[in-house]
Write a structure and sequence with these properties.
Strand content: over 45%
Oligomer: single chain
Shape: globular
Strand order of the largest sheet: 3-2-1-32
Number of strands: 32
Number of helices: 4
Mean pLDDT: 88
Radius of gyration: 20 Å
Amino acid sequence: MSMPSADARLNPACRAAAEPSRLATVTRCRRTLFAATSAALLALTAGCHRNRFPDVPAGYREFAYVTNGTSNTVSVLDLVYLRADRTLAVGNSPTGIAANPVRDEVYAVNTGSGTVSVIDTDRNQVVATIPVHRQPYFIAVEPTGHRAYVANSGSNNVSVLDLDKRREIAVAGTGEQPGLAVLAPDMRSLVVTNRGSGSVSIFAVAAPDAPGPVLALRSVYSGCPGATHAVILKDSSKAFVACSGGHQVMAISLAAAPGSWALRQDATQANDHLLALLDVGQTPIHLALKPDSGEIFVSNFGSDSVSELSTWTNEVSSTYTIASKPVQGIVAEDNSSLYLSNFGADTLGLWSIDDGRLVASLHTGSAPDALAFSADQHLLLVADAHSGDVSVIRTQGNPGPALFTLLPAGGSPNAIAVKAMSGR
């Protein structure tokens, strides 16, 4: 699989999906003098307690886990005391990472090793390694916490993992170079984006006790060059896929559950079907879904813009030139604010969804990339790919969102998972 150079340190979705030629501009991004500022801030704020943030219960713990692609490590950051906790050795070239919603575990995908590292978040130790196949990139964990799905880009398949037994239990063939496997909230559909073949594979997911295969191929849709990131609405009715090799987003209606209200109202909902190909900016690489599922914000890396999509009408509402090589977005839980990592400007943009305008631009480390909120969303974490640190943004307070501190990570941090645990 052809991959961009180590200097083109975009998020895993972009690295897995965009052609090297489309990333040439990234390799020419100027490195800034921010590293010196980062070091000074780290010296001033090391070990800083969250005395400016809401109180937490006794025994409460919360950590961010950051995959460091060129260090073969995961950085563990303490989000209560805002300090580095430890560094864990994992496999080669870790990329995707996800937390188990019901168990004290986090899973790091090791692209270079073809494995998944299991991290016990109670002890912050690697406790198991699960073999998968060649060049895995992401992992999706079921809401029940029992199974996970990993797209293996170098093997053209997707692995199903039993997280209770920590082993692979099934494999299903996909298109060429699958980059992302996204599970629908109702756990009935798995959407896989195939970068190499420019297609989308949709699988029916069997219940744990159901006979037959875990995954059964239900539909395949071509015509999405460089298919990369995807999101599914919270009611599991539609999937949207970024076609990063061009300038479109594919909208797909997912088959309704047997006996459901949707199926009773419309017999066509018995099957998946293509809804639209929506024109956005160049090289769309990330889709940020509002928590209410009403809109999607598309990061158009190639045209320095963000497109706003209506998930109700399947139309592009607007496209705004408000970013510099945007690579990722995230929407606050109140649906009012969109944060954008500007890879080309070393800034984080704050867009007011209600007002339709850019309200702030916050400095970060060099080449901001992956984003993740803390559990209470009073903190926003930004992985800075070139400076090897994590910018900690205070999202609330006077006069507004601001860079609070920087915490050290490893080489080319590229994904973040947050896990909160109550006292025992």
